[in-house]
Design a protein that fits this description.
homodimer, five-stranded antiparallel beta sheet, 127 residues, Beta-Lactamase, alpha+beta, Roadblock/LAMTOR2_dom (chains A, B), GTPase (chains A, B)
């Protein structure tokens, strides 16, 4: 029951983030092990967003480890801009992060704001 | 002669980027192999910025590879925000990138602008 409630809440939050961000393509709540708890993806030609998220989970794990080793403080946010997409990542806990993928011409600032706004709700639902 | 000229130009450009960005701590022009061509660092307590750059070179190599595999287009820019620092990375060529580290409260937008403004100059000096 608790889990189901959390699951519903996760899906709703991710959908809100994607739909309220102009150019939003998908969002995923994922562990550093690359396993998604929940996701919401719009269909995008020629891109498997779930695969994107899994690949980036590995990278984030490395960045997290590096930040800790270097004592530069906890990693909070990572942004990757490619020719076609923007990937915005916000760290939630030691084990989980949320990632939003948007089109290059999407509203980066709005996406970033929504990830920040929803982070406490996602964190609460994870607990 | 050519090389020395390039070296001088690199050092000047990196220094300009760091000094004109409020909160700027250091900048490095580096290959994905983690070997720096040139760098300009201000002394920062408890942080070895050269080590930071080397560690991040590995991560960037991974991100670059991932972006190519996923066909999400070339990686252009990566931003990593930790508790204490912001690391801004701009890809220059298939082999080299420039990274600017600034304090958390530094002027992110100005740093990003300067990296964009100087990228063609760095690229020209690399050629």
């Amino acid at each position: 029951m608790q889990l189901r409630k959390g699951g519903l809440m996760f899906a709703e939050i991710l959908q809100t983030i994607v739909e309220e961000t102009r150019g939003g393509a998908g969002a995923v709540l994922m562990g550093y092990d690359g396993i998604a708890i929940e996701q919401f993806f719009l269909p995008i030609d020629g891109l498997d967003l779930q695969l994107v998220a899994v690949e980036y989970a590995n990278i984030l794990k490395e960045i997290k480890r590096t930040a800790e080793i270097l004592d530069s403080g906890f990693m909070e946010e990572v942004t990757i801009r490619t020719e076609r997409f923007l990937v915005l990542v916000r760290v939630l806990t030691d084990d989980y992060f949320v990632a939003l993928t948007l089109r290059r011409d999407g509203n980066f600032g709005k996406g970033r704001y929504l990830l920040m706004r929803e982070a406490p709700n996602l964190r609460a639902a994870l607990a």
